[in-house]
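Exercise 7. Given the components listed, write out the predicted structure of the assembled complex. Treat all entries as one system.
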Amino acid sequence: MSSVIGSHIKTTVFGESHGPAIGAVMDAPPAGYKIDFEQILTQMHRRAPGKDPTATSRNEADTPEFLSGLKDGITTGAPLAAIIRNSDQRSKNYDNIAFRPRPSHADFAASVRFGGFNDIRGGGNFSGRLTAPLTALGAVARQILSANGITVGGHVLGVGHSFDMPFDPVNIKADELNKLNKEYFSCISSDAKEAMTKEIAEAKQNGDSIGGEVEIAVVGLPAGIGSPTARGIENVVSSAVFTVPAVKGIEFGDGFGFTSMKGSEANDQMYYDGDTVKCRTNHNGGITGGISNGMPLIIRVALKPTPSIALEQETVNLSTKQNDKLTIEGRHDPCIVPRALPAIEAAVALALLDLIGEVTKL
Amino acid sequence: MSSVIGSHIKTTVFGESHGPAIGAVMDAPPAGYKIDFEQILTQMHRRAPGKDPTATSRNEADTPEFLSGLKDGITTGAPLAAIIRNSDQRSKNYDNIAFRPRPSHADFAASVRFGGFNDIRGGGNFSGRLTAPLTALGAVARQILSANGITVGGHVLGVGHSFDMPFDPVNIKADELNKLNKEYFSCISSDAKEAMTKEIAEAKQNGDSIGGEVEIAVVGLPAGIGSPTARGIENVVSSAVFTVPAVKGIEFGDGFGFTSMKGSEANDQMYYDGDTVKCRTNHNGGITGGISNGMPLIIRVALKPTPSIALEQETVNLSTKQNDKLTIEGRHDPCIVPRALPAIEAAVALALLDLIGEVTKL
Amino acid sequence: MSSVIGSHIKTTVFGESHGPAIGAVMDAPPAGYKIDFEQILTQMHRRAPGKDPTATSRNEADTPEFLSGLKDGITTGAPLAAIIRNSDQRSKNYDNIAFRPRPSHADFAASVRFGGFNDIRGGGNFSGRLTAPLTALGAVARQILSANGITVGGHVLGVGHSFDMPFDPVNIKADELNKLNKEYFSCISSDAKEAMTKEIAEAKQNGDSIGGEVEIAVVGLPAGIGSPTARGIENVVSSAVFTVPAVKGIEFGDGFGFTSMKGSEANDQMYYDGDTVKCRTNHNGGITGGISNGMPLIIRVALKPTPSIALEQETVNLSTKQNDKLTIEGRHDPCIVPRALPAIEAAVALALLDLIGEVTKL
Amino acid sequence: MSSVIGSHIKTTVFGESHGPAIGAVMDAPPAGYKIDFEQILTQMHRRAPGKDPTATSRNEADTPEFLSGLKDGITTGAPLAAIIRNSDQRSKNYDNIAFRPRPSHADFAASVRFGGFNDIRGGGNFSGRLTAPLTALGAVARQILSANGITVGGHVLGVGHSFDMPFDPVNIKADELNKLNKEYFSCISSDAKEAMTKEIAEAKQNGDSIGGEVEIAVVGLPAGIGSPTARGIENVVSSAVFTVPAVKGIEFGDGFGFTSMKGSEANDQMYYDGDTVKCRTNHNGGITGGISNGMPLIIRVALKPTPSIALEQETVNLSTKQNDKLTIEGRHDPCIVPRALPAIEAAVALALLDLIGEVTKL
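Answer.
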């Protein structure tokens, strides 16, 4: 009972897959920022389905309509709302799941949560489709950050057993991120992308799906952003990123790799680079004590395989109270990772904008 | 600028390591719950330093004093506050770090954030000591959850290259958790604990520190807890857990292991066990669509090695603007993982209490 | 920088008078409530301009489009969003005020707040037009309250020197409120309404405007709603009601009348009416200690005269930094009170829904 | 279930009249402000009971102990906590009200709200005693505001039928406020104070109590503070002020006086005073569109007579379910208004600090 990302600059996401529209409201971006609609469309395009064999063949018209908060393309400081009309809905595809929750989907848990009144069609409010408005407002946040010298970007780090090369956590540059930010299925290595694409195609051919992980970097974030205890960057970014469906893990800097490390290996030695305090390594992923230290943010996020697979599965019939079988029909992504990447970047951007907005100087 | 865990039942943590006292306020626990002070002390004891060679030799009197919210040991429904007096402070140990931030500590980032006015002694507001009131109020939350049939527990899963056996995600029982909940440095396997202890002792001997990870389980949580989008269990629990210093990663269910899994492997098949819907596996760690599905919650958390090591390190002198060297003196934990475990369990308990408090039936 | 009403069930209002659309999102209504669209239109009609000589002659098509949160007219438990398209905009009417803030309007203060980037046309985000989505979502809240036996209603208590008879604070009934809830310019006494209408017509004829006050009652609210300290009914309702432009005062029960009262006059003596605890009087307006006591809520709200008047006024020219004169053109309400009434009732309904949603029983 | 004032800089108040201590935590004041403890004691003294015949003869040691957030008397930017030990408790005085709620007190409503588990002794969490930590942290807020050129002050405007002269809303100066800020029972006119004192003494002699109202002014607040819709100054200040027990009404500028005014009378004509935009009148009390316009804030607050009177009253016996009689014993204020004044000023100061903290420039 809070579809709101952020505490200071709050973004509320709304909509259901098969309702009239989905959308989001940001309350409120700072005034005076020029927003380039083309850059928003670029992000929408990275998230949109139907572009290649790795994605669902559904056709979504993902052009957001901005309803408020802009005048002549410049933020007014008032809440910024955008909606995206739903279309191409084939509700009948979902008829057979009304009482038979899909394994590993939200269906059963949501049914209990909302007493069966939730809209089950297309996943309803739990649909991955809600990442479209998230991506749109995230694209607004990215531009505001960018105007302040901060760049958010990412790539698909792994799918199945294929992996891209990780970012250089010390030397990653805004240019590299901006290049990735224009691509669908962003990867540093084209060989890695090819290998991942092959794994996804195999899964699809088998009526199966496959998981993966992404890596996000943020460069240009000044030291001193974030607050102690419960409003550190890790608290706020993780909370925002889990908004993207299928995300099941997040780590910052060396993350789970720290388990096997010594302090002498893990500590980032400090030095002056001119007047700027820097670290020789970046095991902390740019965050110490929850607060940015001026080094690039490094974030990795794990996503589970899409639970919608074509294979017959065991479920229950909530109506008859009997065990049952289910075969999910319809068009589904064999791997959600490439399309989830811009949504995760959007969540990171919204979280950072929220945190920056909070650091007030009286 | 929000040391508050939770949105509905809010816990504010305050204090600085070398100030008069640390504490926390929960606004507000539900009325009518009997709170057993002994159970709180058990948790405080699990977190307290000085108990064995793996921990710092500092001596902290960690008995919380409850100031409000209880009458005859029963919650009144009013805010519940507890404080812990600081003592055994050796401020002089920290004099040499005033302008020389310790690598991988909050020192530098906090100095920028607060314009140098933050209390640097003992880590100030960033000190691991603030997990003491967190643990105390978490112990209150645990008892309220327990009265509702919900048990939170955990163990040290790994330190360095030594690992405990993981929980059985389907069959883990409250009894097993309750046994672990009474121990310092909880482990399932005593051999694993011995191996971890040895790694920690080696690190200490070398003036070094070592990282690790913990695993938390929650049993008895009914299906239907959590909300879509930004208030799912993963959002709220992750945000709370990153409150504990040194935490750098979190995963739910199979987490990062999903990267290499197929949907057909990852999906949890459903069936009726009597009238109860269950899953044959629990790759999702009890959470789908952000909402509990009735299976045990499974959470793993990574912690970096304590950055306070005895070895000489590179730092900067913020006063002279020159590069400098630093050797950290004082008594420090070579491995924070065993002591962080009850604090992480406390954060999970507070997050769940917050989420349960939000699911209102009109 | 937070256009959000409520803490538990949050309603975000967005839009600008001359932008594409205005709207609101409620995050989130409880699931399973049937919403009657006709009742929403009734409230929109009460708020709509152009209906009689007391209101502006602008023509607004105030039919909300619901985008989410409903399936077959029943709340799903997901965020409920509604928008209203803007039309009939005559932007040119506002050209002469771009640098000459209208006295007692938000213009100057907003210009400073947003660095001049706010949309000044039609009042922008400060326009009374934003009470349209507030009224729409308030009408949803009213229906949810009504299904729980709670009725919110009100009347215009005074305009200029003409006053309606006040509610009987002890015996006011839901039927009386429901009758008023269907009317435009609700009054108990038709004579009073006639006198007020006459005062408004006179003000209009003089190119002037006139202030007034409204009285709201809530019946059927059970005892025990509201929380101590900062989440009492008075805190939450007042905060919500000041969302309506032109509101400058609020009082509960005898309010400012308490100044001249003795405790022996002001205290509400208690007795059993069957099994129900009641009060013989209701000076407290149904609220003690911030919590409902089972008696009707009684709330009075003061509104200033519309600042848009046709008379020439003194202002400043922010461009030339010189004193200037201003004559406001365009069509304006000579008295906003009748149209503000349903918006204030809506704000009260949203506040109460928020408070009820918070009273969780674990 | 939120004893929290503020959204950005949050102050949580806790404690019960007869528990170990009461207190408050501010999360978090900006870093780097020197706090003068003497000024805090001055405010505590203004609020403290037992100083003259108009107040209760109870003796409260109201010296706050600051536990965190200060180093060498300067704010660190970490949460600032203060507690006040309870003493001089005479619990036996309250035994006879356990099942017999006092008319117009919180007793009955709170009993329903908390299922009878609330601490009824001395009003528990609803006690006016909780205004002590509010006043203490408000005194911190006042000093931070003062360092930014903003002065909050007030006076008792009326008690019974005796009234002080109101502030000059255009020309009120910081010096006048600072003079009032040092006094107990602040009044501009000593004659008025004498008349009020006489009315209070009469009420006391009759075993009765009496209501009143206060007027608050804020000078030096720059234009542009506050946000549209739900975070305007009126929303946030009113929500904070109703935290003080007995408050039943609030108005800004001419407030309820607007009812009988024309726009031509009510509008504040604007002009340049040098480079500063000012208004010739200040009917709006310094706030238009919810945002400060640079003129002094003018706020009036109504308080009901203390419900604790010595006269026999009608109540119910919740145990026997019968009507009953009650005579309240113990020492009580015949008029709470003089002592409530500094608490209301504190609430205003905390609200403004919260609002200022929110206006971020990226």
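Discussion: Chain A has a mean pLDDT of 93. The first helix of chain A runs from residue 37 to 47.
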